[in-house]
Structures are given as structure tokens and as C-alpha cells.
Amino acid sequence: MKKIALIFVLFLGFTAHSQGLYVEVGKVDSNFKFTNSEGEELANLQHTTQNYMEAGYRRQVFTEGFNVALGLNYNSYGSVGSDNSLNNFFEWDADYLGIVLGFDYALFDIDKLEFHLKATTSLEFMLQGTQTINNQVINLTDTEEFDDNAIFFRGGAGLSYPLTETSSIYLQYLYGQSLGMNDDNNGSTSQEELKINTHMVGIGIRIAIPSKDTDEDNNEESEE
């Protein structure tokens, strides 16, 4: 709870001096990696494709072309698989709400088309989720691994293009993975672990917010 409060305070401080906002939507291709108590990985799990959304504030820091962003994201993850030896079918669906901190750097531009690199980290909390085994549906909020807060690290690249003087559109790809989420009920010696791998392709819009200094400069120019 203290971590959430600290992040919230940082969020308020950041937005007070933000230079713009962004809204982003896209597809997230995810897959679950399960390791059992004996350290064996559950085989034959396949990717599923679902949706994600993100919105927040972004500003330039330190040097031209380097930006930091703080926002909220809503991600849906899933995976499917089967065990032919036991004739079992598995399916997972989980929705997470997260706080994301991102950094992007513009490498170069060609005729207004800008290429940038991006890296993010996010702390995500599961809102709801289900696990289906054959005809049985299980609530994931009662499952220890999924009840853990998930920490993701992602990196990738994108392209942006200005629409107007104060707005631009961008397309990007990010690959990411969560840190291992463990089953604490089995004790510290348990090797049970869940990791979520993701591929995200999204499209977004950025809108600049004039800073106080810019408004003062414009007022001074108009008075002259």
C-alpha cells in the first residue's frame, strides 16, 4: 500500500509540470510460462491476442528528443494449451490495471517522420481473471501466482508523424516480460512460478499542452 501511495504522489507531481498527454490503443499477444514445484515448465502453451489501452502524461527532460511519460494502462493477457497424455485443455484470461513509467528517445527523423526507441516498466494489479480446465472454470483471484502484483519490463521502437502543430500520431512495437510471480503458500523453497511474455503493437495520439513559460512568452509578444 505504501508503494501505491508513493507512486500516486509522484504521479501528481509529474502531471503538474507535464508538457503533453497521450492516448494509445492496440493489440497484445501474450503467453504464460508456468514452472511447477519441481522446476518443470508446463509445455504446449500457445499465445493469444487481446487488447490493451494506455493514457498518461509525457514531457521532455534533460535534452531535446528525450522524454519521460507516466500513465495508466489496462492490459488483457491470455494463454491456451493442452495435455494430450491426460486429454486436458487449458485456457487463461486475465485483465490487469497498471501504473507505467516510460522513456523514449528520438534517434532521427526523415521528412517529419520520426524514429524513436522506447523502454517502459509497469506495476500491474489483476482486476479479474479465469482459468478453464476442460469444462471447469476457476477464479484466478483465488490463485496465489495471479494474486501477486506483476512487474513488467518492455522495450521496442516506433514511428511518429505530426498531424498539427500541437498533435502527432505514432505507431510502435514493444516486447516485454514480467518478473516471476511465485506461489508463497508453498514456502520459500517452492519453485512454482509464473511469467507473462508479451508482444504489443499499438497506435496512439499525442497532444501538446502549452507550458506556463510558453504562455508568458506569447503574452509578451502580443503586448509588443
Automatic annotation (TrEMBL):
<dbReference type="InterPro" id="IPR011250">
    <property type="entry name" value="OMP/PagP_B-barrel"/>
</dbReference>
<protein>
    <submittedName>
        <fullName>Uncharacterized protein</fullName>
    </submittedName>
</protein>
<keyword id="KW-0732">Signal</keyword>
<feature type="signal peptide">
    <location>
        <begin position="1"/>
        <end position="18"/>
    </location>
</feature>
